[in-house]
Amino acid sequence: MTRWQRLFPFLQWPRPDAALLRGEALAGLTVGLMVIPQGVAYAALAGMPLITGIYAALLPALIAVLFSASPRLAVGPTALTCLLVSASLTPLATPGSAEWVQLAMWLALLSGALQVLLGAVRFGWLLNLVNSPVLMAFTQAAAVLILASQVPALTGFRSWHAIAEGAGWHAPGLGFGLAALAALVAARRLRPGLPSVLAVVLISAGISHAIGFEAGGGAVIGALPQGLPALYLPAWPGWDRFSALLLPTLMITLVSFLETASSAKVDNGRRGVRWDQDQDLIGQGLAKLASGLTGAMPTSSSFSRSALNLYAGARTGWATVFSVAVVLIALLVAMPLLYHVPLAVLAAIVVLPIWGLLQPRSFTRLWRLSRVEAVIAASTFVITLLAAPRLYWGVLAGVVMALSHFLYLRLHPRIIEVGLHPDGSLRDRHLWELPPLSPKLYALRMDAALDFATASGFERAIAEHLQAHPDTEGVMLIAHPINWIDATGAEAFGRVREQLDDRRIHLHLVGIKLPVESVLRQAGHLGESERLHVYRTEGDALQALAEPG
């Protein structure tokens, strides 16, 4: 790969021919027809003007495919990112207001700039701070909140307050919502590759216009502006509001890129290539910047549209170029067709993909694997729901709990006394009820690095055994699991060596790795001594113990 190809990933695309372009055009048409109604629905979820959902699927999608390492991902508005936008801005402004839109643009610009910076300095590894259980729990809690936000529109009410009072119910709206949901479910099961979302939207618009749904009090999309979005730089929000956007920016950056990761790993796995997460950070960040500068909200990779792109046969980024062309044509000529679409139909479009995120069995499966992680996941789920609209507290709490658990495990390494199993391997002596390898010998194995986190446990294990068994004549350290040692670990090893020498106890080192051995020799802790014995393999050590004398 050349330097220019690394800087501009689209230069790696294959040279198009007629056959390739036909297939890419079909895939692009399929995704483009789906993203138009979805974009409008997700803009409503974010509290943004509905047209901004289509803006977010235009220039951002094109920028993302040109500069990302995963060219078959469908970038644009997504339900989870839009929910985070709405939740972040609820305490700061009125949904749909000019101030709300400007703050949403700032979220897109800030999160985009942060992603570009992280990608440029190769910090994609920060994704590992959020483990799978925390992400699963947060996603499911967010799905519950998204579904709850769509219930009023889906059932013909204008708000939960109206539902509580039983006022303002609109029966035709309920009919449109349920019929659209049933049609989308049936289409997904029978013909998942068809643009069923657009078909449902257009059919519902025709029926709504024919029966005078709007005149009868039904809520519809209404007039949407035609034409291309203008480049626009939002006004400075002031330091108070800017500081209030920083934590939501971190959360949107993290969650939206984790959405990207879930799709990118599938895409790159099918292509048989290594995922370049740093380049995708740059591409997704540039897409967010483009979205913010065209008056829209933060974007992300849509798992459902990316899956549809692959299902429709997309092979390169040309498919996204065609889908952007479809969105462009729709912006120029097709906006009047969406005027009469009932908002209940938009609610159904949001509900269907989100419903699939609810997987309560994930918690039970996790409980069987790790009860601690299951508790962390359940806590993340509950905190996310209780903290709404400040959803980021759920993820932050989950990350803190997961990191605390990780640190606890690192500070309490697994140290066992080994014995010779009948199958010839060295195993936990107490678990398998095995005799000692040799009388008055303490044979231990530490399944961790010997560093600042584990050094204290290592010293404590040996000291406690020597205190309980003062007649010990030898300590054998099975060292092959120790693949790293730092200065603290080397100092701890040196203190153990001195303690054993003072008591004239022999130290047997088995299978020590070269990097660890090099550090210990440089520290002067492996000097020649009649009480230091080094063996390359466990077999060598067992043979030496079996020899008389």
From TrEMBL:
The chain crosses the membrane at residues 20-36, 42-67, 74-94, 100-118, 125-147, 167-185, 197-222, 242-261, 310-333, 339-358, 370-387. It is a multi-pass membrane protein. GO terms for biological process: transmembrane transport. One of its GO terms (cellular component) is membrane. It comes from the Bacteria. PROSITE patterns: STAS. It is found in: Membrane. Keywords: Membrane, Transmembrane, Transmembrane helix. InterPro entries: SLC26A/SulP_dom, SLC26A/SulP_fam, STAS_dom, STAS_dom_sf. Residues 439-545 form the STAS domain. The keyword Transmembrane helix applies. The keyword Transmembrane helix applies. SUPFAM superfamilies: SpoIIaa-like. This is SulP family inorganic anion transporter. It comes from Hydrogenophaga borbori. The lineage of its organism: Bacteria, Pseudomonadati, Pseudomonadota, Betaproteobacteria, Burkholderiales.
